[in-house]
Design brief:
Helices cover 10% and strands 32% of the residues. It is mainly beta. Strands 1, 3, 4, 5, 6, 7, 8 and 9 form an 8-stranded antiparallel β-sheet that branches. Strands 11, 12, 13, 17, 18 and 20 form a 6-stranded antiparallel β-sheet that branches. A 4-stranded antiparallel β-sheet has the order 21-16-15-22, with no helix packed on it.
């Protein structure tokens, strides 16, 4: 009996130990879970996305409105407007691009648009001449209607077309060819959005290096403006019995183009009496040259006149005569101030060999009489 109680007591102890062990293990596991339980600390995050820069999407070329696309024809003695067109885009919307639709942009003060045209690297006179759009010279047109074929399909709501006027001069260097980049005028365009971000493109950079589309053909113009007149008057009244009498002053030949004048010809005509149209003074008594005349010198130095005969050339009625002397050109330097003087002289004694018909006290050649003298130039 005692043995049985002792056995039951031992079983009880065992169960107590087992139960205690389970409690202990459970406590350990619970404590471990509690200790390692994730802790949550909420916080706020804010990310500011930078304003995207504008992008010049396409260059639409340069034109004067008359010449073929991509070319500009200078005008003799004056300036010409070259219209530069391009498309710009801003993913932040057109409001971020400069300019209200249809209104001039005062880009000079704000610096938000810069448009430059630059003369050829291989220019024969001056390379790197820059002509720029002036303040108020650009106008923006929004593409939002989707009707502008120049705008990029699919994103036109964020684009504008810009038309910028650049003033070019008649004496700006011409392009030298249509196929060599360094022979052509180039462009440079910079646009700045409302946040100060910018994009710049120019001829030759990736995406804008096609010939002729991304270059400019500035054409050639030749011309001469003639000022002054030919007269022997006042204190310089012509004495028909004396040789080598220079005129009052020269004719001034102003180069009003962008190429040199390689030769100058003069056509003279017999002079008619101002009071008596039957009186004629033969033009052969007169000569022309590029240096002021004197006794057997300059424009008075005609072959057979007693000098060397190299400074002047005698005129003939209704015949073109190449102007003698050196230099025999009107230079071109891309400055707009190139000019050459030609001088006239009564090189021979007029009386009696050049007096035909009746006599008069004054002789003239005029457009009205149809006997005017002419200057012809060759470039």
């Amino acid at each position: 009996m005692v043995k049985k109680r002792r056995a039951n007591k031992n079983k009880l102890i065992v169960w107590i130990l087992v139960f205690a062990g389970v409690l202990f293990l459970g406590g350990v596991l619970f404590l471990g879970w509690f200790i390692n339980k994730p802790m949550f600390a909420p916080f706020e995050a804010r990310v500011q996305v930078a304003n995207s820069p504008p992008k010049i999407k396409s260059f639409l070329g340069v034109s004067d409105g008359v010449s073929p696309a991509g070319s500009v024809q200078p005008l003799a003695g004056t300036s010409v407007l070259a219209n530069v067109r391009f498309i710009a885009e801003d993913v932040n919307g057109v409001v971020d691009l400069p300019g209200l639709s249809g209104s001039p942009i005062i880009e000079g003060a704000l610096g938000n648009i810069e448009v430059d045209l630059i003369s050829p690297v291989n220019s024969l006179v001056v390379a790197g001449i820059t002509r720029s759009a002036a303040a108020g010279g650009c106008v923006a047109t929004e593409c939002t209607s989707g009707t502008n074929p120049n705008c990029n399909t699919g994103n036109y709501a964020k684009q504008k077309q810009y038309d910028c006027q650049v003033l070019m001069e008649y004496f700006d260097p011409p392009s030298l060819s249509t196929i060599n980049r360094d022979d052509l005028w180039t462009f440079r365009i910079r646009i700045v959005d409302g946040s100060g971000n910018a994009d710049t493109i120019s001829s030759g950079v990736q995406g804008f290096n096609r010939i002729p589309d991304d270059y400019i053909q500035y054409l050639t113009i030749s011309g001469v403006s003639v000022t002054g007149g030919i007269a022997w008057s006042g204190a310089n009244t012509l004495d028909i019995n004396v040789a080598d009498q220079p005129s009052d002053g020269p004719l001034i030949l102003q180069n009003v183009g962008n190429t040199e004048i390689v030769s100058v010809d003069v056509e003279g005509n017999d002079l008619i009496g101002a009071n008596n149209p039957l009186a004629i003074l033969g033009v052969g008594a007169f000569s022309v040259g590029t240096n002021v005349g004197g006794a057997n010198a300059g424009s008075c130095d005609v072959a057979g006149g007693g000098g060397t005969g190299v400074g002047g050339i005698a005129l003939e009625n209704n015949v073109m005569k190449n102007v003698a002397g050196s230099p025999n050109i009107v230079a071109y330097s891309a400055t707009g101030v190139d000019a050459e003087n030609i001088y006239f002289c009564a090189w021979d004694v007029i009386n009696p060999n050049y007096l035909i018909g009746d006599l008069d006290t004054s002789y003239e050649s005029t457009i009205a009489n149809g006997n005017n003298w002419e200057v012809v130039f060759n470039s």
